[in-house]
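Retro notes, item 3 of 5
We never archived the inputs for the fe (ii) ion complex last cycle. Fixing that now. Sequence and ligand:
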Amino acid sequence: MRIAHISDVHCNYGTDFNNKVYERAVKILNKVDADIVFISGDLTTDGLITEYEYAEEKLKEIEGKLVIVPGNHDERNLGWKLFPEFFGETDFIHTYDETNLIGLASSEPDKDNGRLGRGRHKLIEQGIRKNDKMTIIGFHHHVVPVPNSGRETNIIDDAGETLDIILKNKVPLVLMGHRHVPWAVKIHKTLLVNAGTFSCNRTRARFGNTFNIIDINDDKIEVTVVNIGKEKQKKMIEFDFEEGSCKNRYYDSNIDI
Ligand SMILES: [Fe+2]
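Structure as it came back at the time:
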């Protein structure tokens, strides 16, 4: 199974959205031949109806099956009421051949940080218990601080409880965004992965605009970072989730792509 993991698109009519980068990114993305394109939130910048309409138009350029959860920016200005109209349910369990993908809204209206809460924790447990398939969880915010993304203020309020459920149940893969920096780290038998920003001008230092390609084969998960500006890609991490072992490369924007 191949997942293209993109995040933080930030469609708007101000300075956030870079259409030139977006067009280039979609061209690359459409050649990736992913089974699913997972978008971990922030399709808009201020949650405005004009931005939702813009995002809806722009996403039509992406080929393949889109699976989307909202980000904190999408919930601004009552945008949380628009999200379901444009992009469907915000909390879900989707079942594919070999996997369950649990998507969750980690955002709260008009707040930059997030929380999942007990209802969504129950949904995670429900997804895990549903069948014997592999579980993947995706939401916007991060559960542990992400290096190179500034001082920590935005982690989900219930990160400890969320991690406890994820680690105890040996969930192999968690997909997140929000920090505009690509990153992956293994904790016990779980791989936590953040995608960078797909098309926002607010990039950090030399990280640029990126997205992740995630290949899941047998017991292995490989995460490759695609640098959109340079049209180059580099494997970030290779994780054996049965053994819990990992060929770990620390992603360094100065050395890598
Ligand atoms: Fe965000």
